[in-house]
Design goal:
The C terminus is likely disordered. This protein has one domain. The longest helix has 16 residues. It is globular, with a radius of gyration of 17 Å. It is 55% helix and 2% strand. The chain has 247 residues and is mainly α.
């Protein structure tokens, strides 16, 4: 499902590739029929906002939004398991799923990183991709609600994902809106220092595969994920997706 590749690119750390492929991405957004015209317009607006600024400004804004604490973390299991041992097993399970489906990760990224998970689903058949998104519907709704509170144009991506999964975005988000509105979000430097003072948990070592427990079946195309050349149209389209260093 091509739109999932587009959303994978848009939710990843901004790179020159997205700027260079702006027209191609816009065409893919306009062509998709798995999301409504309203959602297509919102996703296009995000693309326009991203590529309408300097790349370094886009990267700085991205880091400030997604990389300051766990509130808007793009790691699925961080929201479910935190730093518990259960998260490690979930990682192992998901990586095994990727490997079983022939999806080889050639970059140093945790398997539950949402842009990576979306890229994997984009190689699956439509039913499997929709089921994979439905498995994480609650998290998609929570992230959409939190992004709307910012407010951030990135919320469009998560609304679109909810719709692809078969949910009415507004209804799904409404169910978590009270929860999100009562959350205390502190992204101050002091709060971040306190957060990262916690002991780090290692999920994988060099002899162990990484995986997570989101079951979507085994219909992904046999396609490696590499640090460069991840196609949008299944032809040469350079995508340095998760290879970019996040600060």
């Amino acid at each position: 499902m091509q739109i999932l590749k587009v959303i994978s690119l848009l939710t990843d750390y901004p790179s020159q590739v997205v700027f260079d492929a702006r027209d191609e991405l816009a065409a893919a957004i306009a062509a998709t029929r798995v999301i409504s015209p309203e959602q297509r317009h919102a996703v296009q607006a995000l693309l326009d906002e991203l590529t309408g600024q300097d790349l370094m400004d886009a990267q700085e804004a991205y880091v400030s939004l997604f990389n300051r604490g766990r509130h808007l973390s793009l790691l699925l299991f961080e929201h479910v398991h935190g730093e518990s041992r259960d998260r490690g097993q979930a990682m192992v399970d998901l990586m095994a799923q990727y490997e079983n489906d022939g999806f080889d990760i050639g970059v140093k990224e945790l398997p539950d990183y949402i842009p990576l998970y979306l890229e994997y689903l984009s190689y699956c058949d439509e039913a499997t991709a929709r089921a994979g998104l439905a498995d994480v519907e609650h998290l998609l709704a929570v992230l959409a609600a939190r992004l709307e509170e910012q407010p951030s144009a990135y919320a469009a991506c998560f609304r679109a994902l909810l719709q692809i999964a078969g949910f009415e975005p507004e209804e799904a988000i409404e169910q978590v809106r009270d929860q999100v509105s009562q959350e205390v979000y502190d992204d101050s430097l002091e709060a971040l220092d306190a957060l990262w003072e916690e002991e780090a948990v290692t999920f994988m070592d060099g002899s162990q595969t990484a995986s997570c427990g989101v079951s979507t079946g085994s219909t992904a195309k046999h396609k490696p994920r590499e640090e460069s050349a991840v196609p949008l149209h299944w032809v040469d389209f350079a995508h340095d997706a998760t290879a970019a260093k996040k600060v």
